[in-house]
Design brief:
With 200 residues, the protein is mostly helical. The chain folds into 2 domains: 50 residues, no CATH class; 131 residues, no CATH class. Helices cover 65% and strands 10% of the residues. The longest helix is centred in the middle third of the chain and has 27 residues. The protein is globular. The protein starts with a helix and ends with a helix. The relative contact order is 0.11. It comes from Agromyces badenianii.
């Protein structure tokens, strides 16, 4: 790669990270509770350091956002939180209920650090599930799930996680990632149709 091509690639990477850098600068300013030249300059320097210098891999945004899918993601999150909150509240006051929970491994469809992080956060926000570990190399989420008494319950949790990942990818993921999760969704539906049509 020539020097000029390397410079273009470097600036393209910075441009794709610009929303993250702006968000970090705003967070730094909010923490100081004042907007001055010093806080803005130090915020920019720290944001560049966090995204470019630290040993963690840089967070690269796809540069794509689908407003409709983003709206659907937000509405589904509110629905999931509301329903799960009521279910957990009922279980908490039900004297007949005996806890039976599981640690479940879920294989994600993508290897994006950003998608993995957002999926883990979204899952943990919903009452009844919390992510306890992430295997970044293999794209695995380990989560503690409430009320998983049968294999069907465990399968339901896995499908919920994959559905959340799918909605996040369709909202902010790259076109390649979106195509991948759509293909995986079609495959799951085909497998479900075959299993339902199979003789008992």
């Amino acid at each position: 790669m020539t020097h000029a091509a390397a410079d273009v690639s470097r600036w393209r990477s910075v441009w794709r990270q610009l929303p993250l850098i702006v968000a970090l600068v705003l967070l730094w300013v909010f923490l100081w509770d004042q907007v001055t030249v010093l806080t803005v300059v130090t915020g920019v320097l720290l944001a560049l350091g966090v995204t470019r210098v630290l040993y963690l891999p840089p967070v690269l945004l796809s540069g794509r956002f689908n407003p409709w899918r983003g709206l659907l993601l937000g509405l589904r999150m509110m629905y999931d939180v509301t329903i799960a909150s009521m279910e957990v509240a009922v279980l908490a006051i039900d004297p007949r209920w005996k806890p039976l929970n599981s640690i479940i491994a879920v294989q994600l469809l993508t290897r994006s650090d950003l998608v993995t992080t957002l999926t883990a956060e979204a899952i943990s926000v919903v009452p009844g599930t919390v992510v306890v570990d992430i295997d970044r190399e293999r794209g695995l989420l380990y989560l503690h799930a409430l009320g998983t008494r049968t294999e069907a319950d465990i399968d339901r949790v896995r499908r919920a996680v994959l559905g959340t990942e799918e909605r996040i990818v369709l909202a902010i993921g790259s076109r390649a990632q979106a195509a991948s999760v759509r293909a995986a969704r079609r495959e799951r539906r085909a497998n479900d149709a075959r299993s339902k049509g199979a003789p008992a």
